[in-house]
# Entry
Amino acid sequence: MAEQAPPRGPDLTKGVDVASLIDGEPLLGRVGEDAVILVRRGEAVFAVGAHCTHYGGPLAEGLVVGDTVRCPWHHAAFCLRTGAPLRPPALNPIDCWKVEREGARVVVRGKAEPAPTPELKGSEPPASVVIVGGGAAGNCAAETLRAEGYGGPITILSADSAGPVDRPNLSKDYLAGSAPEDWIPLRPPEFYAEHRIDLRLQTRVTAIDPAARRLTLEDGAQLDYGALLLATGADPVHLNVPGADLPHVHYLRSLADSRAIIAAAEHVRTAVVVGASFIGLEVAASLRTRGLEVQVVAPERVPMERVLGPELGGLVRKVHEAHGVRFHLGEGLAAITTDAVTLASGASVKADLVILGVGVRPALALAEQAGLKIDKGVSVDAFLETSAPGVFAAGDIARWPDPHSGEAIRVEHWVVAERQGRAAARNMLGAREPFEAAPFFWSQHYDMVIHYVGHAEAWDELKIDGDIAAKDCRVSYLKAGKLLAVATIGRDMESLQAELALERD
Ligand SMILES: Cc1cc2nc3c(=O)[nH]c(=O)nc-3n(C[C@H](O)[C@H](O)[C@H](O)COP(=O)(O)OP(=O)(O)OC[C@H]3O[C@@H](n4cnc5c(N)ncnc54)[C@H](O)[C@@H]3O)c2cc1C
Ligand code: FES
# Structure
């Protein structure tokens, strides 16, 4: 969460000339101690809180789309009429303020009462909802069900010992030591009781019988469901090299993993990160921030080349090198000993701590056992329903028909998982809304943040606009002339505009 500066701009309680407001361009002002944006849409003028409820992003620099505003940092969207969070990663509403017309001026009065939730009109709601997985998708689905007024029982079954956490932070500020532990839970524990969400931790589901609409838990207990969401996420790929099971070798997926790395990092000087993926490099950056000597070993020649292309990948490498990270690229790992790793080339690299970040595999065992249709992921339709009626899937495990690329895709992005959790919940209640959001992710390396919208598994044209070395650029990925994805650095508005363009294409 960003430190919020004292509010700037005009005092909106004194009134603003309507003619001076440009349609769709937020005006930043203040009401007492609160920062507020004023947004004109045609004849209507809205006043809402200026800070995104995710990490405090500046909504005055966001994109207005219809009667919503999208945050420039991680693309959450809020309704200007009600303040409601319409697109994750924001989970909480922004405040709304009363706006009154006085001749040619508008004056902002006190805060408006939160708007009642409009009722979802659809088919008969399920008698109960069970969610397998207490991560991004599962948590968002449960919250959405309650926000939409669903009154039936909601149960989240999670194998994890921690409740839903802000997983992306586990490799970033939290691991670097700059975010306190109380930022990490998505909600305080009492939230679930208050919303009558039965959150059961350390509860692994071992079998599903879709015909009987029944689950079996690890301890043999059984649970019936009206509708089911499968959101089991992904597990780190384990490396099978000598020494991989030594106590100073770590993977990173859960809060417990991140805590274990932090505890280990406090007593050592050198670390080797195996894998130059997003998570691997974020870990490298965080350990550098903690003052460790960090070396990265990876088979690729350019970090992240497969996703970002050689130019941006080259920048990522330079940024890490400028912060003191040493790379061993085009290299494999042969063995790990108590104080070093041996590379495939035979070289030895000192390592008191080893982090293996070589990718993840979707957790499909349950879906396979249940006999759901699988295609390197759980196949879902446009409404995120699996091949079994009443069983939905979302997040890292789901392969859905992406209308932008025209292909069935599966991605491992936080925002997509949350949005799919929300969409699946609404569809359980009969909304019948196809999932059409363009995929989005961000990745942070020291003070450089990469934004990426769309999905390009392969491209035949890469267009660069701006100056990559100056960290001010837009990279477009095209195939047969069609724009598939856009990566930006230092151009938050362009990323929002690209997302909208992809969605309207
Ligand atoms: C360290 C780290 C940093 C990341 N950073 C970013 C980032 O910057 N940007 C980005 O877009 N993405 C990022 N990601 C990826 C993002 O976190 C995932 O895409 C997202 O969490 C997927 O959500 P999900 O709900 O599908 O699964 P998860 O959040 O992984 O949740 C899955 C849940 O299912 C539970 N579970 C699994 N099997 C069972 C079972 N049989 N019974 C009961 N429970 C079960 C697990 O315990 C877990 O609670 C990061 C991931 C990690 C690990
Ligand atoms: S700060 Fe607004 S979406 Fe993250």
